[in-house]
Amino acid sequence: MIAEPNPREELRDLVRSLAERVRTDGELGRTRSYLIRAQCAVEAALTKRPAAATPAGDGQDPLESVREVLGDCRRCLLHRTRHHLVFGEGSPQAELVVVGEAPGAEEDTQGRPFVGSAGQLLTKIISAMGLRREEVYICNVLKCRPPENRDPQPDEIAACEPFLIRQLLAIRPRVICALGTFAAQTLLKSEAPISVLRGRFRSYQGIPLMPTYHPAYLLRNPGAKKQVWEDVQMVMQALQEERR
Ligand code: SF4
Q1: Atom of ligand 1 nearest to the CA of 156
Q2: Is the predicted pLDDT of residue 48 greater than 50, yes or no?
């Protein structure tokens, strides 16, 4: 028996094969980014979940449900040294989610993400994008501060990442921006450095994801601001295209 043609599947296969073909052509940098975003848009449309922040069956905001499940988390040893668990903040309907690495000292004190000097720079970057901070959702891979701001350990990421995934699926933003090596590597399951990952869109569960440098890195290396601005402009363009 001949199977009925499925236009949705055909469209998905067409975009995938087109994106794959262009992906192999390193000469077509800009076109490649465009096609990856097109692929993300089609995959997102074809695998459309319920609208972001649609209340769950019990009427509860899905993001609040994630927070409730996380609770007074003791799933890794970081709970012993934290002052506050930093879940994340911003709009549950955000079109853009920004994911950093982990809370620092100021964030640990206040229980809010990106409120230290790097956070102030992030707020300026968001503002330069024409957005208000409260319109965006901001969170980290780890919800608790590693002592002395040391690098996140694999077991800590393994324990905490499921909650980041649930946050992203609850919000289902149009674009994700991963700040710094750990956020980008965790979300993309890559070992490549941020200098290699940044600068073009990747796909995270059908959502376009732009890796770029962490604002804390920019404070130490102001020369990298130009590259971040290039990345951020691509994010702005993608958001505008998604709104059309
Ligand atoms: S870092 Fe994440 S997994 Fe570890 S205690 Fe904090 S919330 Fe729990």
Answers
A1: 4
A2: no
